[in-house]
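User: Sequence in, structure out. Go.
Assistant: Echoing your sequence, followed by the structure tokens.
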Amino acid sequence: MADNSLFGRIEVTGGDRLDLLHRLSTNSLTGLPAGGVVSTVFVTDKGRVIDRVIVSAREDSLMLITSPGAESLLTRWIDKYTITEDIRFRTVTDDTVMISLVGSRIISMVSALLGFPPGKNASVTLARGETQLFIVHAQDSRSDIANIITDRAAAPHLVETLGALPGAWWIGRRAYEGFRIASGVPGFPGELNEAYNPFECGLRGSISSTKGCYIGQEVIARLDTYGKIRRHLARVTSAAGLPGPLPLPMMMNGAEAGTLTSMTEIPFGGKHLGLAIVRNDLSPGETLRAGTTGISVLVTGTVTDT
């Protein structure tokens, strides 16, 4: 379990909320029923990433879960393309908390405790006295996470209740970051930024190949159709931690081979884990140099998203 309250949360209302967000992002939102959950990507007109967002539908609103600190960036970008549509945004990040349940075991335990039916990519609202718990279960090939969103006033009781579960434990920010990196989940702003397109960030599973036009769709389709995707997201490891900030160019035989975008602060299993966006001709087992640090980085595998 992790306190992920730093992740952004935006409540969206208005009759055109689904239609507009469908036309502005990479995945299909048309007909998303109450309780449905979809991962989608907002991209620029050049097909570059703004943020990956979890969209959860309720009867009269949507909840958008963004990357930490990306709420204003996302709402400003959507507002740029809003003309006469009936849509309103309310950022609720500061008014709520979000507890993430990481992995199927803890999700099953909390499901039995709180009485919500587990379901892949589904959400539910539970009433507990005067308190409401909104649970968003997002699952893909890399991670299985259920997020519990509730008012700040209800957080201490929720934390106490969850902490009493046998075999469950809390993890901190650095441990959760290690989980994210080890799972190959791209993060903001390391991987999720306007330097990359969604394919390079390993987000193919958040892109619909059958929906109609959206902002950046022509570029995204051309990249895929004509094989123009020249880089991919890769897992890397290093025996030593990095002394400075990321990103860092990675070199091989005097030529730039990619960019190191994320690295754990602490070692896991004796190694620092990382994510990098590298050239497609690089294979697992290749050793690269991280910038001018002299530190070796080993490419261990390609991240896939299905």
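User: And one key feature?
Assistant: The chain has three domains: 8-91, 96-181, 195-302.
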